[in-house]
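Deliverable D2.4 — example input (structure tokens):
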């Protein structure tokens, strides 16, 4: 977990819970290493060399990298470096809100050779504004100017990992909380360079989900998938991150097999009583469970 509020884990409580929900669904033990994004930056190598060394050791030893949301420019360069490391080394990556935006910034700088690329949140005078303030937002009033609540995202690439994780849905409704977004005018340039915008809003001008098609798992979401994660119904994108980090993604994305119960419960014939039933204290009969099958969207079926 690469963030700027790592000294107070409750700042990322919803993200931690979503990771736990996904880990349980995939049958894996969750181990979270906290990496302060400031410690990854070049200036930290001079000012706090031990912390810099430790941060990079943790990052390089991780099975997966998650960059959550945040505000302000402190630690942003460290987050960009984390996204770059994940992209270049085929390490599973999930970027949420700002975590998606900094992945876009890194792609512009490293792949598209635009060294000045930035978000106007951090550099209002950037020559390559790949992340911009929402056109309808107020720059003078911070209150009630965010794009909040449930918004619909349409998948325009149905074969992408994200769509498969959501059960091949045509669209999904997820909760948002942001003021900045990917600059739609630069999207054709990004797509030409290999960055895929697999999910967009109903207008097709707001970028909601990014992916690198040839990467093991490199996904960014403008929305906050952690807000809808629940025990027994984990967020699909978090399931994808955990699955990719534990070597289970390829199996998870395979089409679900048709399961046939080989031992159907016999029905009474001519008054013959069937197998003895186990009863609950309230007198209701217990139903046998042969297995539980988890789908990528967190739903469970009993067979």
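Example output (designed residues):
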């Amino acid at each position: 977990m690469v963030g700027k509020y790592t000294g107070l884990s409750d700042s990322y409580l919803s993200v931690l819970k979503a990771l736990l929900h996904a880990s349980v669904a995939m049958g894996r033990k969750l181990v979270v290493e906290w990496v302060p994004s400031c410690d990854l930056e070049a200036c930290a190598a001079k000012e706090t060399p031990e912390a810099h060394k430790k941060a990079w050791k943790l990052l390089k030893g991780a099975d997966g990298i998650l960059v959550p949301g945040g505000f302000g420019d402190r630690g942003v360069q460290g987050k960009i470096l984390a996204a770059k490391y994940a992209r270049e080394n085929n390490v599973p990556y999930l970027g949420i809100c700002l975590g998606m935006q900094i992945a876009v910034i890194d792609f512009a700088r490293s792949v598209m050779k635009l060294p000045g690329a930035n978000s106007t949140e951090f550099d209002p005078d950037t020559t390559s504004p790949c992340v911009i303030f929402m056109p309808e937002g107020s720059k003078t009033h911070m209150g009630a100017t965010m794009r909040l609540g449930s918004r619909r995202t349409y998948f325009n690439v149905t074969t992408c990992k994200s769509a498969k994780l959501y059960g091949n849905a045509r669209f999904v409704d997820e909760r948002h909380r942001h003021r900045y977004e990917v600059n739609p005018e630069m999207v054709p340039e990004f797509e030409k360079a290999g960055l895929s915008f697999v999910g967009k809003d109903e207008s097709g001008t707001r970028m909601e989900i990014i992916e690198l098609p040839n990467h093991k798992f490199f996904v960014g979401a403008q929305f906050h998938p952690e807000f809808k994660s629940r025990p027994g119904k984990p967020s699909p994108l978090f399931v994808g991150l955990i699955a990719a980090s534990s070597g289970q993604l390829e199996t998870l994305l395979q089409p679900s097999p048709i399961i046939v119960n080989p031992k159907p419960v016999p029905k009474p014939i001519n008054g013959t009583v069937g197998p003895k039933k186990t009863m609950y204290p309230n007198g209701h009969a217990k139903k046998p469970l042969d297995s539980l099958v988890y789908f990528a969207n967190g739903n469970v079926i009993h067979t």
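The chain has a mean pLDDT of 83.
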